[in-house]
């Protein structure tokens, strides 16, 4: 049974009433009061950057943020490349995340999104370098999908992944995601759930919001960071877990035809976690069901993020009560 596109889209969608609080520019504001003028959206949106962070409820009731500092550092990396000025430190944003989650009283899994956009009324199409940003952190409940007995159908897109020479993919910017949106709409029109994009060299890049990996003859292979992929924290997590377990893993350029010969394929990302791909361009992947390596990785990842593993406890940040 495949995960349908609309069902998977609910991974990072509100499943409950809107939260009471949103963090904005250093303080908690009530949801309905967190407003800007419509004319302040426009061009400022083209420069907006963001992060997606998950907080998982542990078995003992603690709320655990997964690799919080790595996500926040990547936000600052995006700001540097986009030449934006974030008027807060990493420690400030860390505290902001804690304050927001406590203020909204979460006792369940939550998705946290820090984002920044140039402040004030921006009328220039070219947002000036060094623009001071407003910084917002919002949050909503999410539903994890640890059941990897199901998978999704993928198709190679005719849309090309944006190039580092045009719009750097390693920047987590809202504008970059229009590339994936076009590919996603095409995939659904063609009867697939999700697309896989190729880069300007016609090598495999990533999905519309997640990296991709294949398994062949027991070796896990994923496109290199120079293949037009986001510097994914989930990708790094999986590669490190494999390496520490002594399992064969390779980062390199990947040909499209390798997808058709793979024993297993899967997406990996913060929102998607580990999502098996059971068909590619209408061809079954392996036996047409999630394979053993994918299932094992998904189980290890689920144990890790919920504090059920003794591996990399330093990746977990407990939300102070």
TrEMBL record:
Cofactors: pyridoxal 5'-phosphate
Reaction it catalyzes: L-leucine + 2-oxoglutarate = 4-methyl-2-oxopentanoate + L-glutamate; L-isoleucine + 2-oxoglutarate = (S)-3-methyl-2-oxopentanoate + L-glutamate; L-valine + 2-oxoglutarate = 3-methyl-2-oxobutanoate + L-glutamate
UniProt-listed GO biological process terms: isoleucine biosynthetic process; L-leucine biosynthetic process; L-valine biosynthetic process
Signal sequence, start to end: none
EC number: 2.6.1.42
Coiled coil: none
Reported function: Acts on leucine, isoleucine and valine.
Family recorded in the similarity comment: Belongs to the class-IV pyridoxal-phosphate-dependent aminotransferase family.
The protein, known as: Branched-chain-amino-acid aminotransferase
Organism: Micromonospora yangpuensis
Classification lineage: Bacteria, Bacillati, Actinomycetota, Actinomycetes, Micromonosporales
């Amino acid at each position: 049974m495949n995960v349908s596109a609309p069902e998977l889209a609910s991974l990072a969608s509100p499943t409950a009433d809107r939260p009471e609080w949103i963090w904005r520019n250093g303080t908690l504001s009530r949801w309905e009061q967190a407003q800007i003028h419509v004319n302040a959206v426009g061009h400022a949106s083209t420069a907006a950057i963001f992060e997606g962070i998950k907080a998982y409820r542990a078995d003992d009731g603690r709320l655990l943020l997964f690799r919080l500092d790595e996500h926040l550092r990547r936000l600052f990396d995006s700001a540097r490349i986009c030449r934006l000025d974030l008027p807060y430190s990493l420690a400030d944003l860390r505290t902001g995340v804690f304050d927001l989650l406590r203020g909204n009283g979460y006792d369940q899994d939550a998705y946290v999104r820090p984002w920044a956009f140039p402040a004030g009324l921006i009328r220039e199409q070219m947002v000036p370098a060094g623009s001071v940003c407003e910084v917002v952190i919002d949050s909503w409940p999410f539903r994890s999908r640890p059941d990897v007995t199901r998978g999704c159908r993928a198709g190679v897109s005719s849309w090309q992944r944006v190039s580092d020479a045009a719009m750097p993919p390693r920047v987590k910017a809202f504008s970059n995601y229009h590339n994936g949106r076009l590919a996603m709409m095409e995939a659904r029109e063609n009867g697939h759930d999700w697309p896989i994009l190729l880069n300007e060299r016609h090598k495999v890049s990533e999905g519309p919001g997640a990296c991709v990996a294949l398994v062949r003859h027991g070796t896990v292979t994923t496109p290199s960071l120079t293949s037009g992929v986001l510097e994914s924290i989930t990708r790094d997590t999986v590669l490190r877990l494999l390496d520490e377990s002594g399992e064969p893993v390779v980062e390199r350029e990947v040909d499209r035809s390798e997808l058709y010969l793979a024993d297993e394929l899967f997406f990996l990302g913060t929102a998607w976690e580990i999502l098996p791909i059971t068909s590619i361009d209408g061809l079954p992947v392996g036996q047409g069901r999630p394979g053993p390596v994918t299932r094992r990785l998904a189980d290890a990842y689920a144990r890790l993020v919920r504090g059920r593993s003794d591996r990399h406890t330093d990746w977990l940040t407990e939300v102070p009560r």
